[in-house]
Amino acid sequence: MKAEDFDRRFDAGEDVTADLDLGTARRPGQEQRRVNVDFPVWMIEALDREARRLGVTRQSVIKVWIAERLERIGS
């Protein structure tokens, strides 16, 4: 399918998801890279308590808190 045809169908509100390879789709700027961080035990225990309270993983808590802080400082 030509890009013009795809754009026309999309702009017309047609469902074009069947024409996409969602298995290889990527969100720009959302690529991930693994990092290792050592935390003191008391900090891990506090993170785990908060994660249990929220019903999410420790990693989720860490990611959200760091993202919030970075947004606050304008990075």
Give the overall shape, derived from the CA principal axes. Answer: elongated
DSSP strand count: 0
Describe the largest sheet.
Answer: none
Mean pLDDT: 91
Structural class: mainly alpha
Quote the beta fraction: under 5%
As residue ranges, the low-confidence spans are none
Gyration radius, in Å: 20 Å
The structural domain count equals 1
Please write the string of helix (H) and strand (E) elements.
HHH
How far is the first residue's CA from the last residue's CA?
40 Å
Helix content: 40-55%
Tell me the number of helical segments per DSSP (H or I, 4 or more residues long).
3
Please give a structural write-up.
This protein is mainly alpha-helical. The protein has one domain (3-73). The chain has three helices and no strands. The protein has helices at residues 3-11, 41-54, 58-73. The protein starts with a helix and ends with a helix.
Highlighted features:
single chain; 75 residues; mainly alpha; 52% helix
Task: Offer a concise description of the structure.
This protein has helices at residues 3-11, 41-54, 58-73.
Q: Secondary structure elements and their pairing?
A:
Elements: H1 3-11, H2 41-54, H3 58-73
Helix pairs in contact: 2-3
